[in-house]
Write a structure and sequence with these properties.
alpha/beta, Rossmann fold, six-stranded parallel sheet, 11 helices, globular, AB_hydrolase_fold, AB_hydrolase_1, Sec-Metab_Biosynth_Hydrolase
Length: 235
Amino acid sequence: MMPDHPTIVLVHGAFADSSGFTAIIKRLVSDGYPVVAAPNPLRGLSSDAAQVRARLQDISGPIVLVGHSYGGAVISAAATGNPNIRALVYLAAFVPEEGESAQALVEKFPGSTIGDSLKPVPLADGQVDLYVDPRVFHPHFAGDIPADEAEVYAITQRPATGAALGEPATGAQAWHEIPCHHLISGADRIIPPMAQEFMARRTGGQIQVVEGASHMVFVSRPGATVALIEKAAQQ
């Protein structure tokens, strides 16, 4: 392993877990990168960011921090103030400004099916867990992966609370200070490509559009995903 390889830290989003990163983890490790899949509780933006921030503080040396979907909002907060973060990589991700929530950003542009996809499960504390209805998980969330694989991801998905998706970002967002790289999924039916491009362009970061890719672009296009992460790591 080359001594100057940064650690790649992967943060999953809502309705997923770290198992979706399997293919890209294998490629990154094969290329000599240390990799950490950080837990994302999906309970609330500020508390989720605090947990990821704590995990980052336990890693020595440079870090490239990668977030998918809601995980993008989490890394934008978690990276703030950490001098080891070399780059932020957003995979079909939310990149909020202070005061913006994932829910507000997804509603800013037309084209999302998320409102027709979610099944709420009330919790004892008055909160609501949200799941993507397995009946529409494949066409809405993962349209460019085989149906049998999408079925497994639908079964193993982890819910996010409604509060997490509606919680506005607070404080300084790390993308103002740290170089950014964006992989935009061109056929995304969860976060519309127009919304992804809007968020990406205001960071001033590098943008790559993967035409025909679903919201699970890191699963369907692992080669493009790894290439972008390694480009960020080498700059």
